[in-house]
Design brief:
Strand content: under 5%
Helix content: over 70%
Radius of gyration: 21 Å
Shape: globular
Bound molecules: tryptophan
Number of strands: 0
Largest sheet: none
Distance between the termini: 41 Å
Structural class: mainly alpha
Oligomer: single chain
Order of helices and strands: HHHHHHHHHHHHHHHHHH
Amino acid sequence: MASSVTRGTWGSRTGFILAAAGSAVGLGNIWGFPTQVGQGGGAVFVLVYLLCVLLICLPIMVAELVIGRHAQLAPVGSFDAIRPNTRWWLVGVLGVLAGAGILSFYSVIAGWAVAYIWFTATGAVTGDAAAVGGFFTTFTANGPLSIGLTLVVLGTTAAVLLGGVQSGIERVTKLMMPALIVLLLVLALRAITLPGAAEGLAYYLKPDFSRLFDPTILNAALGQAFFSLSLGMGAMLTYGSYLGKHESIVSAACWVVALDTAMALLAGFIIFPSGFSIEGFDPSAGGPGLIFAVLPRLFSSLPGGQLFGAAFFILLTMAALTSTISLLEVPVAHFIDVHSWARRKAVLLVTTVVFLIAIPSALANGSVGFLGNLPGLGTDFLTLMGIIWNNFALPIGGLLTAVFVGWVWRVDRAIEEVELHGAPFPGRALWSFLIRWVCPVAIAVIIVYTIASM
Ligand code: TRP
């Protein structure tokens, strides 16, 4: 494998954590999590989600960071360097495909966020629930506009990646993350004091245990956890390859998981109380439009709501951008490391391909009828992309990563890498058990159970 290219590294440990958290925190937390909770029956989804995060995703986060830091290469190169002359590099290829696939629908939704900066700032989207919902439907039915917005998102992402690793990603995230946390806290405080908020909190926090083993909920929660944490496709592996040998992998992993989960939970504390303060609100009806239908109403209940709304969508756009950057970085780093392409060529070609795949998702909400409700599948193209990549590709990538570290490369070598230069590895026996047994078995059971019940 050719890898003569000089690799960037992070300016500091905080820089790494910020950048990895910047990858993790994005539409997955603020758009995806409430949407999935709404479709997965409320609090029971939250419970399953948290179990997936702790028992499956946190160990896999450590595993990805370890592989990347050990091999110092992008996914395909890393698997190949650790186990040459085997087919394990195909896990990296799955990641490259998933990166492009996820980015294709992700950039469409990020485009919606961009447009809502303008809509909220100018007060274009106001009125009662029906008006706000209708506004969203009319807006997304405009195919050329959706395509244009998608192009803006992808173009900006490509521009940041052309600037290299550290200067681009780290700087954006350092400013955006604290601002986003403060704004989410303010909005959550406002939301839980609205009339009707109690009903929303109950929906969000009191699980209906009878649905605990519903395969749809298990699979959606697992996929959402992988998606939200940027796991299962080598994004964290790639970030780990930029991590210095003196840094503690375990504490970095814990920080990223804690920040990401806190942001998702916080988003739920905004959406459900304010949703349920609307008469006749049905959290499962909104689909991908849930936050776009609920939030403008919350803003209009605030003094200076237009300003709050615009600030919110600016921060959401920035959070989405730090994620699109990491999604694009995986295929780009792949072509640089494995095929020795120049960064510029890799960025431009991959972005063009992703844009072409994004077009059907951008058109799914209206102008091209058959994309809106795919025959025989009862779902639109954008939602279908989410199911394929999030619910299947990412967990399968995670399963293979767990098997690779637990059984092929073997845990003692991974532990050795974690403990380099005396770095601590608290709970390493538990981690070994989870990565060898719990992660692969739980993921396999959920996937097989989902397929069997389709
Ligand atoms: N985690 C991001 C979010 O929640 C999306 C994302 C960025 C991602 N990079 C990824 C998902 C890599 C899977 C894999 O918005």
